[in-house]
Automatic annotation (TrEMBL):
Predominant subcellular localization, coarse grouping: secreted
Residue stretches in coiled coil: none
Protein name: Flagellin
Alphabetically ordered keywords of this record: Bacterial flagellum, Cell projection, Cilium, Flagellum, Secreted
Residues spanning the signal sequence: none
Positions of the Flagellin N-terminal domain: 6-139
Length: 326
């Protein structure tokens, strides 16, 4: 129908051009930003899913850093225990040498001097090994001190956050092993609390260790005091066994720390796998497919050109009405 008031063809062309322009604008926005979803209008459900996945990925990235820091913490403690084992082994060698009847009093005095120096270093390692400014084993070696001595490994709870949710935690407590180790070392080195030669037991409050005759061993006489024996072997013999127990206690703690560190390493690998796949899922929702979107933009540009041409043609139909009136 020819009409001056309503040009249906032009209206249709205008609607087509409007839709094509909107599609072209969307394609250009996606290609310029690299994101398929730039607002909730683009994909409301997809944006909700992607937001949740991104939050999970971010949390796992932090958890991965947590595991690496925790492994470093455990390795710091394990390294100190490695040196502790070396010192205890040397002390055991000295006790074994002192227990031999061929050793003279002068020999034992020299051995005891080295033994005392090693005892002081044991105290130093236990009280000063720290990570990030926090003592790992024991702030004090006096068991009756107020407040009670503590260290990060002495805490009843050593919990690691290994995931993005509150339930993803891991218990790495080794407080029992630390206490056992400190007690074992204190029994073998009665000057363990500082090597000042005045205290017995850990911190001077525990009952001193006894030699093979039941006589208390006092600080500075662990491998030198004859305790009534002509060869001076009583203290040395008793100390050998105590040092063996101390070495075993240190080994047990090192094993526990190593087991926790190994588990954290597996946690890190698993988090890395989950994070990679979660990020990939987020990308499939949020990222622009440049091949497809470039094709869409080209199609929209061609449609816009065609629509514009047809609008021009439809607007010329009104001249037909004027020709009828001539």
């Amino acid at each position: 129908m020819l009409s001056l008031h309503t040009n249906s063809a032009a209206l249709s062309a205008q609607n087509s051009i409007s839709r094509t322009q909107s599609a072209l604008s969307t394609s250009q926005t996606r290609l310029s930003t690299g994101f398929r979803v730039n607002s909730a209008m683009d994909d409301a459900a997809g944006l909700q899913i992607a937001t949740r996945l991104k939050a999970q990925t971010s949390g796992m990235a932090m958890a991965m850093r947590n595991t690496q820091n925790s492994i470093s913490l455990l390795q710091t403690g394990e390294g100190a225990l490695d040196e502790t084992t070396t010192i205890l082994t040397r002390m055991k060698d000295l006790a074994t040498q002192s227990a031999d009847g061929a050793s003279t009093t002068t020999d034992r005095t020299a051995m005891q001097a080295e033994y005392n120096a090693l005892t002081k270093e044991l105290s130093n390692i236990m009280q000063n090994t720290s990570f990030g400014g926090t003592v790992l084993f024991s702030t004090k070696l006096d068991t009756a001190a107020t407040p009670a001595p503590s260290g990060k490994f002495q805490n009843a709870s050593l919990t690691f956050q290994i995931g993005a949710s509150s339930s993803e935690k891991m218990d790495g407590s080794v407080s029992t092993q630390v206490t056992t180790m400190l007690t074992a070392i204190g029994s073998a080195a009665v000057a363990f609390d500082g090597g000042d030669g005045t205290n017995a037991g850990v911190g001077g409050t525990a009952a001193p260790a006894n030699d093979s005759t039941g006589t208390p061993i006092v600080a500075g006489s662990e491998i030198s005091d004859a305790s009534g024996a002509s060869d001076g072997s009583f203290n040395a013999n008793a100390t050998i066994d105590m040092l063996s127990k101390a070495i075993d206690a240190v080994g047990s703690l090192r094993s526990s720390l190593g087991a926790v560190a190994n588990r954290l390493d597996h946690v890190y690998n698993n988090l890395s796998n989950i994070s990679t796949n979660t990020a990939a899922a987020t990308g499939r929702i949020m990222d622009t497919d440049f091949a497809a979107e470039s094709s869409n933009m080209t199609s929209s540009q061609m449609l816009l050109q065609a629509g514009t041409a047809m609008l021009k043609q439809s607007n010329s139909t009104s001249s037909l009405v004027m020709s009828l009136l001539q």
